[in-house]
């Protein structure tokens, strides 16, 4: 639901190119009610091409060059799907994805960029690096620089402006780190830089000569090796790092769409509309048939307002606008160091002033994506009832387990329940799942859990909700059996509600099927926001209880902590500011990957050996460990340096980010935990969604468990030990 209006249409943007990120930013300022906006991109961050030479040269950090698509999508109210498009079924109006089911659209836009790899050259896949897409190149380049080879040999295949910029940037960066590089450019044409005027061309060739860059014209690579590039002449050029910048080719899957193409690129008219009236395209993947333009970021930026207008116009039945692109543009070409060459209308100039101009333009573009208004609480009314401000708290309500009722409030509410009368239920009271009945040598257990909308993607939320609900079954050592669904959909048209429900059941059934269970029924309704829950049963011969740990047992954990803080920070559109940290979107993506990992394999190893086990969820590691200790009658010592944390979570905690229920978790543990202060300790109270298993193992069982987990590539962290004494946690630094 968007601003109180039901959702009616699906607008899907495929690709995080320059045109689309500007459309998203503008959409955030004036969303169109009734539209579910979706962005599909393989990675959580997208590079700004204008800064690539400066990044290679060392003038910009990777973070300064990257646009955080996760934060931008949150700001725009868009669903972000981290996957790669591999096709479009125009008849069914669906985008086919590499990793999950197809995504339906009512209106589609493509801005997927181009590729500069050399798929037909043997050895390139194994030993070469394409400059585009830029995300993979940036990581590969950072890794190569870090090797600090004393005399690195770099070969650049492609002698256009992009190749020359990279050659000068590569030489500058490597010299700055104290090595003696040899950079070679290979040009298939006998004439390098054909797209520039004669004056600018002479300047660039002179810059290459002065930098000692080797230029080989009329050269075609026939083999890329680990240490050399072989040419058609048979000569071998030494190469420790080979970069392909040989023009740009369209992504191959476009040829299967049935759209009109030009050299593989989507042919669009002056309104950026393809041969299919429901599909638009902009950026490097598009070819403007009426007025062709070079593959340059400036045209994607200029196309963005027209693309936004025309997408909204189709959705609202209004007239479309023409995209009027200038015939020439100011080319600002980096010269390695903080100098640039400028060329337009055949005129050129160079120097540090032009670098400062380029730097100012690039930083101004990126500044648009740095900070967004934080999610805020509603203003307090006046007059207001006493206690309203305290009840509202200081943070917006989180999603996932961050929206859970605090432990103390839960205890007060549960206190009115009468004791179970059935003996098998009483035997399971207080554990992760209730014991329903005994069938032969096995017990049947049951649990329920749900998640409110912490992200706007029904498919992903269903995967997480199913994984989360299974956690209690795995924690009992049981095998999942059946599941009942409880689904609340937001107000939407019948078509969109049908799509959402299909997405949810497709995702959830895949999770349950992989666990050996089936969805056998459920209930659906319409409410204020998307909420997905499951009641799950399982069978187990020997339930693993929360109690039973003994002094000397080792405490092991199967997933890192920090999901509550990361999810809360992402919902608040926070930015990771500490140097050396992942970007917020990357931290969120790593968090989701950890959350979605099934506990089934780990439970299969731990359950036969564990004396006590639980899953770490809404009460945080501290709260769930205290439950285990109270049920067992002993204490524990936790070694803080051994506790694993998700990437970026400690830095976010240090910035003051926290889940809305973290303070309640801390209050519930008051007087029962002795710990130093610091962000790592704060994360011990962090509520986890789809958290890991916490088990107490006899010391003698640990080597076998470690070996079995390693054989399955399952993480396992030894974080402490059960001790004599009262149910108290001592945290050591």
Q: What can you see in these coordinates?
A:
By secondary structure, this protein is α/β, with parallel strands linked by helices. The chain folds into four domains: 9-113 and 251-329, 3-Layer(bba) Sandwich (FAD/NAD(P)-binding domain); 124-244, 3-Layer(bba) Sandwich (FAD/NAD(P)-binding domain); 432-540, 60s Ribosomal Protein L30, Chain: A (2-Layer Sandwich); 554-732, PurM-like C-terminal domain (Phosphoribosyl-aminoimidazole Synthetase, Chain A, domain 2, Alpha-Beta Complex). 32% of the residues lie in helices and 24% in strands. It contains 23 helices and 36 strands. It has a seven-stranded mixed beta sheet. Helix 1 (18-29) packs parallel to helix 4 (69-76), helix 14 runs parallel beside helix 15 and helix 16 packs across helix 17. The radius of gyration is 29 Å and the shape is globular. The model has no long low-confidence stretch (mean pLDDT 92).
Main traits of this protein?
FAD/NAD(P)-binding domain, single chain, 5-stranded parallel sheet
- The tally of helices reads 23
Can you tell me the CATH superfamily of the largest domain?
FAD/NAD(P)-binding domain
Strand count, sense and barrel status of the largest sheet are: 7 strands, mixed
CATH architecture of the largest domain: 3-Layer(bba) Sandwich
Query: How is the largest sheet built, in terms of strand order?
Result: 31-34-30-35-32-36-33
Binned, the helix content reads: 25-40%
Q: Class by helix and strand content? A: alpha/beta
- Structurally, the number of domains stands at 4
Radius of gyration: 29 Å
Beta percentage is 15-25%
Number of strands: 36
Low-confidence stretches: none
Which overall shape is indicated by the principal axes computed on the Cα atoms? globular
Q: Tell me the name of the CATH class of the largest domain.
A: Alpha Beta
| End-to-end gap | 47 Å
CATH topology (fold) name of the largest domain: FAD/NAD(P)-binding domain
The average pLDDT value, as a whole number, equals 92
């Amino acid at each position: 639901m968007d601003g109180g209006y039901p959702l009616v249409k699906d607008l899907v943007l495929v690709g995080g190119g320059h045109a689309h990120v500007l459309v998203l930013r503008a959409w955030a300022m004036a969303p169109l009610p009734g539209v579910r906006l979706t962005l599909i991109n393989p990675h959580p961050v997208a590079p700004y091409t204008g800064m690539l030479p400066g990044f290679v040269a060392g003038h910009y950090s990777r973070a300064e060059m990257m646009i955080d698509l996760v934060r931008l999508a949150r700001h725009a109210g868009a669903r972000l799907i981290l996957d790669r498009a591999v096709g479009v079924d125009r008849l069914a109006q669906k985008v086919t994805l590499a990793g999950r089911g197809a995504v339906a659209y009512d209106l589609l836009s493509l801005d997927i960029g181009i590729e500069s790899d050399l798929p037909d050259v043997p050895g390139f896949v194994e030993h070469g690096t394409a400059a585009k897409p830029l995300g993979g190149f940036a990581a590969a380049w950072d890794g190569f620089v870090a090797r600090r080879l004393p005399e690195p040999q770099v070969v650049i295949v492609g002698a256009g402006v992009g190749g020359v910029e990279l050659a000068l940037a590569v030489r500058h960066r490597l010299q700055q780190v104290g090595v003696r590089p040899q950079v070679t450019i290979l040009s298939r044409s006998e004439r390098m830089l054909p797209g520039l005027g004669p004056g600018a061309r002479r300047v660039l060739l002179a810059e290459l000569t002065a930098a000692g860059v080797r230029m080989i014209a009329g050269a075609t690579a026939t083999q890329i090796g680990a240490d050399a590039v072989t040419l058609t002449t048979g000569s071998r050029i030494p190469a420790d790092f080979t970069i392909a910048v040989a023009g740009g080719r369209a992504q191959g899957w476009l040829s299967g769409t049935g759209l009109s193409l030009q050299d593989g690129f989507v042919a669009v008219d002056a309104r950026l509309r393809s041969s299919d009236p429901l599909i638009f395209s902009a950026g490097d993947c598009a070819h403007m048939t009426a007025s062709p333009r070079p593959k340059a970021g400036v045209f994607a930026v200029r196309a963005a307002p027209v693309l936004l207008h025309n997408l909204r116009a189709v959705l609202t039945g209004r007239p479309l606008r023409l995209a009027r692109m200038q015939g020439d543009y100011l080319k600002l070409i980096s010269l390695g160091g903080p100098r640039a060459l400028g060329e337009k209308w055949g005129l050129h100039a160079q120097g540090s002033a032009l670098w400062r101009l380029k730097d100012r333009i690039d930083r101004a573009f990126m500044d648009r994506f740095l900070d967004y208004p934080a999610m805020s609480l509603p203003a307090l009314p006046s007059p207001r009832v006493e206690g309203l401000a305290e009840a509202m708290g200081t943070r917006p309500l989180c999603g996932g387990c961050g929206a859970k009722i605090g432990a103390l409030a839960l205890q007060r509410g549960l206190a009115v329940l009468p004791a179970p009368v059935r003996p098998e239920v009483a035997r399971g009271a207080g554990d992760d799942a209730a014991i329903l009945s005994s069938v032969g040598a096995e017990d049947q257990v049951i649990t329920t859990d749900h998640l409110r909308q912490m992200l706007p993607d029904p498919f992903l939320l269903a995967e997480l909700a199913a994984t989360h609900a299974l956690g209690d079954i795995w924690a009992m050592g049981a095998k999942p059996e059946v599941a009942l669904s409880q689904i609340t959909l937001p107000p939407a048209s019948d078509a969109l509600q049908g799509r959402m429900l299909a997405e949810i059941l497709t995702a959830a059934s895949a999770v349950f099927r992989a666990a050996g269970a089936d969805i056998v029924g459920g209930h659906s309704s319409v409410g204020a926001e998307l909420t997905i829950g499951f009641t799950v049963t399982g069978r187990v011969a020997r339930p693993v209880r929360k109690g039973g740990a003994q002094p000397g047992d080792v405490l092991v954990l199967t997933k890192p902590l920090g999901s509550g803080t990361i999810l809360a920070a992402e919902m608040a559109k926070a930015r990771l500011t500490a140097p050396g940290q992942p970007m917020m979107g990357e931290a969120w993506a790593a968090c989701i990957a950890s959350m979605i990992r099934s506990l089934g394999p780990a439970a299969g190893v731990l359950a036969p050996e564990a004396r006590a086990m639980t899953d770490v969820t809404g009460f945080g590691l501290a709260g769930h460990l205290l439950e285990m200790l109270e049920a067992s009658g002993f204490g524990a010592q936790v070694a803080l340096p051994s506790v694993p944390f998700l990437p970026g979570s400690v830095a976010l905690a240090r910035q003051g980010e926290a889940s809305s229920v973290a303070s309640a978790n801390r209050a519930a543990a008051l007087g029962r935990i002795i710990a130093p202060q610091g962000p790592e300790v704060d994360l011990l109270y962090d509520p986890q969604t789809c958290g890991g298993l916490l088990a107490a193992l006899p010391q003698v069982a640990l080597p076998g468990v470690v070996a079995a987990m390693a054989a399955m590539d399952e993480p396992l962290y030894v974080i402490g030990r059960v001790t004599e004494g009262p149910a108290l946690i001592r945290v050591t630094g």
